[in-house]
Each structure stands twice: as C-alpha cells, then as structure tokens.
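Incident log entry.

Two folding requests arrived from the same account within the same minute. Monitoring flagged them as a possible duplicate submission, but the sequences differ. Recording both here for audit purposes.

Request one:
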Amino acid sequence: MRCRRTLLLAGVAVTLTGCAGLGPVAAPPAPERPAPPAAWQAPVAHGGSVSELSAWWAQVGDDTLPELIALAQAASPSLSAAQAQLERARAELSAGQAALGPTVDASANANRGNTQYPLPLSRTAGASLAASWEADLFGRNRFAAQAAQARADGAEALWHDARVVIAAETAVQYLSLRYCEAVLEQVAADLRALDTLTRLARLNAEAGLQTSAAADGAAARQAGASSRLLAQQAACDLDVKALVALTALAEPDLRQRLARRAGRDLDVPPAMVVRSMPAQVVAQRPDVLAAEREVLAAASLVGEARTLRLPRLSLGGSIGAFSVRGGPLAADLNTWSVGPIRLQVPVFDGGVAQARVKAAAAEFDHAVRQFDAKARQAIREVEEALVQAHFTSQRLTQVRSARLALERSLRATEQRVAAGLDSRQSLEEARRAVIDIRLNELATVREGLIAGVSLYRAAGGGWNTP
C-alpha cells in the first residue's frame, strides 16, 4: 500500500508536469498522508492462508449459494446503475480521446427549382468534406482525456464493488436461512423432549409421586416451546421471502432449489477460513481503487484548468465538388480551402480562469482526503473482520468441547436408564441440555460464517486489480 501511495503521487506529478516544457503548467501540492500499516495488528485467525477470495462461494460446498448470487446480481438495480455509469464514463472517455485528433464532417446537398420565369429549371448538387483540428499546445485535451480515463477506470471499479456487495448480501441472507432451518430442527427436537417430560410429569402427578404444580410447569414449558417453534417457522419463511426479493425468483422455484440442501449440517467451511492476509490486500478493494482514480482525474482537471489561461491554436480546411445544370448552363466545380488558422490568446476574463483553477485545486484536495478516508476505512473493516473471525473460532472450539462433554453425559444417562439406575425424566433433561448447547453452537457457527462474509467484503471480494 505504501508503494501504491508512492506511485499515486508520482503519477499525479507526471500527469501535471508532462507538458512543462510547453507551458507553465505545474502539479498541485499534495497534502501529507499517513502511510498504511505494514501488517495487520489484529490476531490472525487459525494461522494458515487462502489464496483466492474469488473461489469462496464455489468452495463452500453448496452449489445453491453461487446460483443465488448470480441471480441476485442479474436482478440488482444497483448493479445495473453501476453498469450505466460505467457506459457513460466510457462514452466520455471516447469523446476525450477523439478531441486529441481532427474531426471530419461530410455533407451533401441537391436542389431543383426555378428562380424566375421564363428561365428554365435548374439543378444543383454538391458534396464536401470539412476538417478541423485544435493543436494541443499545452496539453489541455490530453489532460481532459487522462481525467476521462481515470474516471472510466473508477466507474469500472465501482461496478465490481457493487457486485461484491450484492454477493455478500445474498450470502448473509442465504446463510441466515440455513441457520434458521438448523435452529428450527433443534427447537422441534426440544419440543419432542418437552412432550415426553410433560407426559411423565402427569403420570407422576396422577400416581402421587409429584405435585400437580410440577406437571403444570412442564406443560407451560411445552407451550412455550410450541410458541417458539411457530416463531422460528415464521422467521424461516421471512428469510425465504427476502431471498425471493433479492434473486427475483418465483417462490416455488426458489423453494425447490433450497430443498436440494435441506437438512445439511451448518458449519464454517474451509473455504471461508482465512488464516493470513497481507496488508496490501487493501489495494484490491474496488472502492479504494475508485477513490485513487478520482484523485488522478482531479489532478488532470487541475492541469486542464490551468491551460485555459494559455493560447489556443486551431486549423480548419475543406474540399468539395459542385455541379450546376440548367438550360444552356452546365458546370462542374471543385473547391478546396485551408484555414482559417486561428490563434486565441486570453487577455481578460474577469478572473474566471483563475476561479476555475482554484475550484479544480479544491476538488483535488477533496479527492485526496476521500482516498485517505477510504483507505483507513478499508483497513478498519479488515481488522474488525479478522478480530471477529479469530475470537469466533476460539469460542466455537470451546462450545464444541462443551457439547461433546454433554453428549458423553447423555450416553451415560441412557446406559443408566437402560440398567434401571436412573429415571426417564433425567434422560430427557440430559437430552434437552444437549439441544441447548447445540443451539449455542449453531449461533456461534453463524457468527463465524458472517465473519467470513464480512472478510470477503472487507477484502474486496474476489476481484483483483490488473
């Protein structure tokens, strides 16, 4: 990143001083900017590496997710808006590059009529080519073309940024649905365990082995679990509706696609485990690249504004053929001309040119500060995603250790019940404890998945600068 800033400042200087031999055009002063850190300060998760972020979705092991991301990108209005902006920038680039050369226009005309009786009808026809060219004495057109090129590059980068944002948003929504389905399965299992406990409590109350209050408490817990199951079903349906809106798929079609992976275990796949990441990864973020290109465009526009106070030289010319037919009159003429050669020298404009230079310099300073802000924000986002991934991984390890211990306890309770050494109620309580820790584990897994998506977004997704 430090090298990138050095290249940026060098590019600005070369851009604005390339024509120094032809006129008094100098680079605007660049404010001091802090250098980025040499390495991430956050703890790096897991201690290994993943080479290509672009392969994340294909490596998740769930072919439904890449399909939904592609559909969401195709249906997204923000992506189409970014594409339209890119096409406008490319059109402006074509216009800027065309200004460096001559323009040629062709024209043709024909006429048939009578100007005064009794003169015969006359016919005239003609065709001509006209060319004009402005000599780029002090680099004005070249500065404009450079600004257009930088903004076209920036618009392309923002198109990629929109693609990354949509992919991350779709992934978060899809993973949330899978988490909801996994929780729904555990809540249903909890309700089954509570059903058993409620029946046992009633039997014990009828046999006088337990108070009726205990049976009522079990029934209340069963009703609460039933309510929670309904709420979880509603949450899963809402996640499906959100995916319908994102992908523009009909809901029956979407549910059919989702059914292919129904019941799949929710876990953090290896593809989303980033073990190391160099600080230079900020350079591949599309929004950072777009901000950098805006700095280059603003620098070029400062140079263009300064050339407006310098002389301009233009040259024109034409060649044509003319034919006249009318009664005894018949003539064919060929014409050509070179000129006029026009030299425009600004003398007095009431300070307009100077005001334009000041405005362009202010825009340049703003673009530099925007670039700094984008770079700092990128560093912050990656740092935060690494912190989240690191500590979520540690928490997941602890939660899984606890689940394994409770599962061992559950198996031991099952053996005691089978041997008549423990009650069925103890078995169901142990089963509920396993379900509770499994819900905790699922929530931690979801946090790990979201951390992976956040890192994908913070690192610029799968797009790399050429």
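Request two (distinct sequence, not a duplicate):
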Amino acid sequence: MDSPGSPRLSPTGDLPDRERPARRQRFLVPVLGSCGIVAALMQTVVVPLLPDLPKLTGSSASTVSWTVTATLLSGAVCTPLLGRAGDMFGKKRMLMFAMCVLSIGSLMCALTSDIGVLIVGRALQGAATAVVPLGISILRDELPPAKVGAGVAMMSSTLGIGAAVGLPLAGLVVDHADWHVMFWGATALALVVLAMIALVVRESPVRNPGRFDVVGSIGLAAFLVCLLLGVSKGTAWGWGSGRTLALFAAALVIVLAWGVHQSRISAPLVDLRVTARPAVLLPNIAALFIGFSFYANSLSTAQLVQTPKESGYGLGVSVAVGGLCLLPGGVMMVVLSPISTHLTATRGPRFCLGIGSVLLALGYVVRIFTSHDLWLIILGATVVASGTAMCYSALPMLVIRAIPAAQTAAANGINALMRTIGQAVCSAVVAAVLTSYTLTVGGHTLPALHAYMVVFVIAGVVACCALVACLCIPEPTGSATAVTGEPRKAAPARAMPDPTGRT
C-alpha cells in the first residue's frame, strides 16, 4: 500500500503522466539554455584563430575572413526560416535539426585544414543560431505563465553568455593546443545537447498550420545574403566599388519584390501586418541597435588589450588573457537574468529594456575614460555586458506579448535576425574606423587609441537610439501582459490548439 505522501505509480511502475511534465519542466530551461550557449559559441570561437588561419590553411587573409562571414550569413538566413518551420511543423523537430546541422559542421571543421571545407563547415555551424527563437517559443508553450518570463530571460541571455565565453575558451585552445581541438569540442557539445533535447524536450502541440512559403523563403534568403555580404565585405572591397553597390541595389530590389509577395499570399513567411505594428516593429528596431552596441564591445576589447605596449596605449597581453577580459561580462549576464525577470514581472519588459539601454550607454562612457588599465577596461566591458543582459531578457517578452502564441518562433526569429543584422553592420563600422585612424609601430600598422574612442562613442550613441525606440513602444492593453508575469485582472486559460487548425 502506498504511503500518503508518495507518488502513485502506474501499473508499469512509471510515474503517472501528470507528474512527467513537472519533471520535464525542471530540466527544460537548462537544456534549452545549453542549446543557446553552444550555438552562440560558434559565433566567436574562430575569432582568436583568424590571425593564424592564413598560415595554417595556406590561404589569404581575405579568404579566411569567410569563416566568419559564412557563419553570419547562414545564421541570418536560417533563423527566420527555421522559426517559421518550427511554428508549422514542430519546434522540437526544427531544434534537433539545427543541432544536427551544427554537429555536422563542427565535425567537418575538426577533420580538415582545407579552407574551402572549413568555410562550408562554418556555414553549417551558423544554422544553429535559430535555436534561440525556437527555444523561446517552446518555453512559452510548455511553461506555466508565471515561469515564462524567467525562462525566456535566461534563453535570450545565452546569446551574450556564449559569445562572452567563446573568446576566452578559443584563446586558451589557440595558445595551448592544436586548433582542431576546439572544433572537436564543439562537436562533442552539440551531440550531448542533442541527446538532452531528445530526452527532455517534448514536441509542442501549438502549431500554425499552412503551406510553407517557398518563394518567400528564397526571396528573404537572397535579400539577406546580398545585404549582409555587402555590409561585411564593404570595407575590404570598397564602399563605392561595383560589387558592393551591386549587392546593395540587388538587396533593395529583392526586398521590395519580397514585400509585395508577402502581402499578397494567405500564409506568408513573415506576416507584415503583424510585424508593422508598433508593438512589434519598435522592439525589432531596438534589437538592431542593441545588437550593434553589444558587438562593438566584443570586437574591440580583446584587440585593444592585445595591442603591443610600444603603441603607447596597448597592454600587450596574450590572446587567452584578451578573451578572458570578456568573461566577467558573461558571468554578469547569468547573474542578472533573474533580476531582469523580476523587473520585467513587476515593471514590465519596456522598463527593463530602458534600464538596459541606459547601462549600455553608460558602459561606453566608462570605456572612453578607462582604456589604459586592465581592470578598468574589464569593468567597462562588464557594464556593457550587464546592459546587454537586461536588453536581451526584455526583447523577446516585448515580442511575445504582442503576437499570437502560434507565431512565437517566427516572430522571435525576426527579432533575433535584427540583432544579427546589427552585429553585421557593427562589424563593418568597427573595421572601417579601426583602419581609418592608425599608427605605425616597428613597421606594423596598428589602430590608434583615437580609433577605439570613436568606436565607443558610436556604440554609445547607438545605445541611446535603442533607448529612444524603447520609449516609443506602446504599453499593452487588455490581457496582452498575460505571458510576461505582470499583474493582470484575470488570468485567461491557456488556449489549446484546435485539431482542425482553427483558433
């Protein structure tokens, strides 16, 4: 006979069905967060290796730069496409697909020193960028409303956590081991996370049925490739060169035709009517600015402290130490996640985004005046990361409260895409600034300290633009705040999908 407090077992000895969801929920956020961190690692893991890759692969520096560009492009293309496919065909299915592609790409990179194969492998790794909006959508479907905010905050923060951790880890590998080791490690991590997804995550029943928009997918992919390729290669090719201008012209033509197509079909890849609402459009604009402002910190910090002392301002530290300067920021992103959740629940996600934008701007004020001492540089970088953590926690909640549950993955995919575009633009701007203000030391051309100051000023101004966009976001009405954990008059029942596809 069962004791009064013990769980009642089924005839087979298993826990009853009603207790399995509670057990899954305990592991759901850590597992999905692990997916996000592994995917974000792929964005920065190759950066410390870039100076040595031409010699290691027998290729030019311009060719090697494609190991970064390919990941950026594939991530930008796959994020909205897999988000929409997840809403239609199953979010767990698309999540596992993205991690499988990441595993294959990592294995290809681990087995080769050929630059062509390496670029293809890096492109496959970039597809995993889609796991963050897919994970956010699963959390909205699976968690009780009171826990959605905390889960989404942690999931969104993994983008910054992974980026902050990736640089020091890669730096340690570059300094102390064969460079293939980091790709073997990435393969192992991806396979472990894939197994955890299979065991813990269940397929969400919330779907948005319809026909997949193949033409719209091709059009969006073509637009993003033209736009981001032009932005990322503009500095190397020349902003007035024929190739760069042709790419921007093609992007403009394609996006106009794509917009017309999306407005005319019944099941578009991106619902432009929903996306154009101020409650959705303004968070996406803020995401663009936040992505730009945060990435400037990642691009400049390690390079600044690794500059030789002979420059008059550099600290001459190793690659590993340069990467470790960003690690405290990654730790702060984890620490601030519950605080961001509390602010979002009590004051609303718009308030949290505003505080984060202010912190971002203040962080760059610190960077401008403290670029000579290592601990002060780390302090400024950590303040920037702290502001980013609050912004990244708030942005998906702003989107979630403004769109139907069946469109969560697609809508957050667009929001993540805007961050990616912001990072791409930031990369081009930083490269242009650092090559415009230079000095010569021992026969080598290096960025001048003034170049870094210009980067910090631009990033701070962009953070202020994010604050302006935040202040313009309208407050929700009615029950729109239900998923954010904010106070509400009545908690509506969670809608279950109609088997016929009707809402």
